[in-house]
Amino acid sequence: MADPSSYRPSPGQIPDSPGVYKFRDEHRRVIYVGKAKNLRQRVANYFQDLANLHPRTRTMVTTAASVEWTVVSTEVEALQLEYTWIKEFDPRFNVKYRDDKSYPYLAVTLNEEFPRVQVMRGAKKKGVRYFGPYGHAWAIRETVDLMLRVFPVRTCSAGVFKNAARTGRPCLLGYIDKCSAPCVGRVTPEEHRELAEDFCDFMAGRTGTYIRRLEKDMMQAAEEMEYERAARLRDDAEALKRAMEKSAVVLADATDADLIAVAEDELEAALQIFHVRGGRVRGQRGWVTDKVEAVDTSGLVEHALQQLYGEERGDAVPKEVLVPALPEDTEAVSQWLADRRGSQVSLRIPQRGDKKDLMATVQRNAQQALGLHKTKRASDLTTRSRALEEIAEALGLDTAPLRIECYDISHLQGDDVVASMVVFEDGLARKSEYRRFQIKGFEGQDDVRSMHEVIGRRFKRYLQEKERTGEWEEPQEPAPGATGPVPGAAGPAAPGATGSTSGVTGPAPAPVLTAASPADEIEPREDDGRPKRFAYPPQLVVVDGGQPQVAAAKRALDELGIDDIAVCGLAKRLEEVWLPDDDDPVVLPRSSEGLYLLQRVRDEAHRFAITYQRAKRAKRIRSSPLDDVAGLGETRKQALIKHFGSVKKLRQATIEEICEVPGIGRRTAESVAAALASTAPAAPAVNTATGEIMEEDDGGAS
Predict the structure, then answer these.
(1) Please, are residues 445 and 413 in contact by the beta-carbon 8 Å criterion?
(2) Is the pLDDT of residue 139 over 70?
(3) Smallest Cα–Cα separation from 263: which of 349, 351, 350, 361?
C-alpha cells in the first residue's frame, strides 16, 4: 500500500476551476477518473485521514501513485470528458455507479426489422449501435424527445408495437408526429431503417449536414409562402441544435483533429495537445520544455509537430491540425503532414465556433501546466540554492544574495509615474515587504531619474532607521533554507518578534509603511520596539533595465555612502544582466536557474508596479472636486465641463457665469464655486484632457 502523502499535490498547485482528474498506479495505468466543479476542493478530499475515507476510496488512494487533472470551462464539459475517459481507460475503480447501476447508453437496435431507439444498460449486444455513456437516463430521454421531431424513429417496446399492429391504431407518439408509425404501415421497413440510420449518423457527430438541409428547406418554404411548413422546419432545426448542446469537448460533423496550444515565457514553454476523434476528446498529451534557443510561438508549434508526428504511424495524423500560430514555412510543414498521412491535412488557426472554444480550453490547460511547473520549480530548495549560487558567481559576490530587492518604473505616456519594490528572500517572494512609490521629484517621463529618486528614498530611509536603532553588528548569513535572523539585516529582531517565510525567520510583519512619504520623514518605531522594515538592507538590488538604470541606482547608493550592496539590471529584450561601470553585459545561459530567478523577480516587480499604476490612474480619472457638491448630479456636472471646457476654466468663472449653464441655479453655482475654491491646487495638477483634478496618493504597501 502506498502512502498518499508521497504524491499529494499542494493545494496551491491545483486549480479551482471545473475539470476531470485521473489517479494512476505505479505502472501509469489509470485506476480512477472523476469530475469536479472545483478541482482543488474535490482532489483535496482524497488526502484526508485514511480512517475517514470510504473503504473503496481508501483502497484507491493507497493503490494510486500519482494524480493529474485537466481543466475545462463548465461542469457539462467535465461530465462529458469524464465519461469519454471512463470508456477509454476502463479504470478498475470506476466499474459501477454509486447506485450500483452501470452507465446508461443510448442504443439503436439495428438488428431488428424496425429499429428501436431506447436506453440500455449492461453488456453490449451484437447489431446494436451504442452512443454514450451518459450521466443520467433522463438526459438520454430528453435528447431523444428533441430529435424525434426530425427523426421519428420507433421508441416503443415490442408489446406496444404488436398491440398497435393488431388494432391498427398507433400509439400517442404516432398521433403527434414523433413516430413514423411503422406499426400501422405509414412507412415501409426500408424507409424506417433509413430514418434510424440518419438518427445514428447525427448522433455520431455528422450534424452539420442535417441542420444546413433543414435551414435550406425552411428558406425555400418561406419563399414559397408555406409559412406553417417553414415554422415547423425552423422548430426542427432548433430542436437539433438543443440536442447537440454546444460543448467545447464535443465537436460537430465527427471531426478528427489535433488541437495544440502553447503557454510560454522568455525561458520556458508548456504545450498541450488534445486529440479529437469522431468529434470527441479521446486523449491529451503535454510537456514543458526549456527554451534553449531564441524561438517564438510559431517555432514552438513547428517543433511540437515534429515531435508529435515524426515517429507516428500515418493514420495517427488527423485531417485537421489546429494551432495557435502557423509555422514559418506553413506550406512545407503542411506537405510533410500530408505525406505522413497519405492525404491532405488542414493546418490552420481556428477563428470561430466550437473549435475556437475548444482551443481556449486547451490553452487554459497549457497555462495551468506552465504555472504548476513554475510552482514546483520555485518551491524546490535545492533548485533555489543553486540559483542563488549561480547569481553570486556571475556577479562576483562573496556570498549568495539571500535577500534581493527589485525595482521597476511604470507610467502611461508619462502620466501617473510610479515605482515598485519587491523582495525575495531565500529565492521566494516576501510579499509583506513589498513597497510602492510615487515619483515626486519631477514631472514627466524619465525612467533614469525616477530610478535614481526611488533608490535614494528607499536607502535614505534605511540609513535613518539604522541611525535610530544604533549600529548593529552584522549577523552571520545562514545557508538557504536555514532559520535565523533575516539575511543581511541591519540588526537582530526585537525580542519576541516572530514570523518566518520559506524557512527564514525574521521580525513579524509591521503595519503598512507609506513608502511614498517624503524621505526625510522618519516613521516612529512601533510600540513593541520593532524597527520599520526599511531598516533591513538587501545583498542585491535588481533594477528593470539596462546600463542607464543601473548607473542611476549605483549613483544613488554612492551619494548616500553605501558601498556594500551589489547592483545589477536585467534588460528584457535579450535577458542580459548589466553591472555598474561595465561596458559589456553578463550573459547567463538561458537554462540557468540563476537567470530564471532574476527573471521571476523582475517580472514580479513589473506586475506589482503596473497594478499600482493602473489603480492610481483609475482613481484619478474617477475623482473630481465637483463630486463634493451636494445635489449636483452627473448630468449637470457634465454640462458644466462641456460649457467651460475644463475644471480649470470653471474654477476661474464667476458665479454669474456659472449660472448661465442650463439647469444651474444661483445656490448651486455658489456651492460649485466654493467647492472649487477649497480644492485649488498649490501647483497645476489638472488633466486638461478630462477636465478632472489629478489627486495625490501617498501609496503605501500592499
Answers:
(1) yes
(2) no
(3) 361
Q: For domain 4-94, which CATH number applies: 3.40.1440.10, 3.90.870.10, 3.30.830.10, 3.40.30.10?
A: 3.40.1440.10
| 473 compared with 103, residue with greater pLDDT | 103
Enter the CATH code of domain 623-693.
1.10.150.20
- The reply to whether CATH 1.10.260.40 applies to domain 390-618 is no
Higher pLDDT, 319 or 78: 319
Q: The whole model's pTM is what?
A: 0.44
Within 13 A of 433's CA, how many CA atoms are on the CB side? 27
Q: Which CATH class is domain 257-376?
A: alpha beta
Q: DSSP characters for 223-262? A: HTT-HHHHHHHHHHHHHHHHHH--BTTB-STT--EEEEEE
pLDDT digit string (tens) for 44-59? 989 988 888 877 788 8
Other CB atoms within a 10 A radius of the CB of residue 293 amount to 7
Strands 403-412 and 540-544: parallel
Residues 6+ apart with CB under 8 A from 295: 303
C-alpha cell at 631: 445635489
CA distance 473 to 491: 7
DSSP state of 182: G
What nine digits make up the cell of 696?
Answer: 495625490
3-state secondary structure of 430: coil
Task: Confirm if 82 and 103 have CB atoms less than 8 A apart.
Answer: no
Please report, for the chain, the start and end positions of each structural domain, with discontinuous segments joined by +: 4-94, 134-244, 257-376, 390-618, 623-693
552 is written with which cell numbers? 542611476
Q: What percent of the chain has a predicted confidence (pLDDT) above 70?
A: 75
pLDDT, averaged across the chain: 76
- Measured in Å, how far apart are the chain's first and last C-alpha atoms? 46
Q: Which H or E run includes 428?
A: strand 428-429
- How far apart CA 456 and CA 135 sit, in angstroms, is 65
Q: What is the dihedral of CA 450, 453, 454, 455, to 10 degrees?
A: 120
Please choose, from the candidates 446, 443, 445, 537, the residue with its C-alpha nearest in 3D space to the C-alpha of residue 490. 537
Query: Fold match between 257-376 and 390-618?
Result: yes
How many alpha carbons fall within 13 Å on the CB side of residue 339? 7
**pLDDT range class, residue 379, cuts 50, 70, 90:** low
Long-range Cβ contact pairs of 128-132 (< 8 A, separation 24 or more) = 129/200, 130/105, 130/106, 131/105, 131/106, 131/107, 131/200, 131/203, 131/204, 132/83, 132/103, 132/104, 132/105, 132/106
Q: Which residues contact 364 (CB under 8 A, 6 or more apart)?
A: 17, 71, 73
